Amino acid sequence: xxxxxxxxxxDGGVVFGxxxxxxxxxxxxxxxxxxxxxxxxxxxxxxxxxxxPGKVVALWNNFHAxxxxxxxxxxxxxxxxxxxxxxxxxxxAAIRRPAHYAGKIVYEGELGIVIGRRCRNAxxxxxxxxxxxxxxxNDVTAADLLNENPHFPQWCRAKGFDTFCxxxxxxxxxxxxxxxxxxxxxxxxxxQNYPLADMVFSPAEQVSLISQDLTLEPGxxxxxxxxxxxxxxxxxxxxxxxxxxxxxxxxxxxxxxQDVAAANAAAVPA
Length: 270
What we know:
Pfam families: FAA_hydrolase. This protein has one domain: Fumarylacetoacetate hydrolase, domain 2 (Alpha-Beta Complex). Strands 1, 2, 3, 4, 5, 6, 7, 8, 11, 12, 14 and 17 form a 12-stranded mixed beta sheet that branches. It has a 5-stranded mixed beta sheet with strand order 9-20-19-15-16, with no helix packed on it. The chain has a 3-stranded antiparallel beta sheet with strand order 13-10-18. It has helices spanning 64-70, 124-130, 155-159, 203-211; strands spanning 2-8, 14-20, 23-27, 35-41, 46-47, 56-60, 79-83, 88-89, 94-96, 105-107, 109-115, 131-139, 141-142, 165-173, 181-186, 189-195, 221-223, 231-232, 238-243, 247-254. Helix content is 10%, strand content 39%. The radius of gyration is 18 Å and the shape is globular.
């Protein structure tokens, strides 16, 4: 298993590579994982989201336990929406409450699949080979907007605000996802703890089926959906999502009016 991260260097450039013993072994890019030969101390680098997806495909109703609680049928094809690239931030960056929105903001701790090669109409085996690795996602939602208009559920608007897709802190290749759990805490209190083995569609099945609908590109992320324990975040609260082996993704919901531009440097694209 290798751990991959993305950073901003002192000169403002973005570097990507394999992390080992406090150093970044730089590679050209995620889709061209060729070592450059440069080795950089992590102490000189500022962490960013570990990839810069062109799109984030976010699943709904992909866990048997949650489907049972909601009394929803298990889907025959992944149910998904898209989150825009501008919604992505890294671990340590602040989630910003939209200025015009005073309603409920919700966390969803999830596993994220990072695509490593272009993928279209892939078989399950081809899809498995197209997965670069796995990361952690907090799929943030302005919940009160979902059904604000009774004639049109606003999934993309509610989930697409700037800073509403937290990704990180790293990408882990060779990850044994079936043995792992997602643990989400809110100000240190556990709110979610569920097994990834309960997924309706395995990661390879997700990639294969979604690739029948749209082309997946290197760096794109599939958020695998969440299970039981979703809840709201109060201003100033910290949400931390952990998956053993990948790490902990931690973000604060910024108090209204707070200047968080510097903290949100993790949204800088590659």
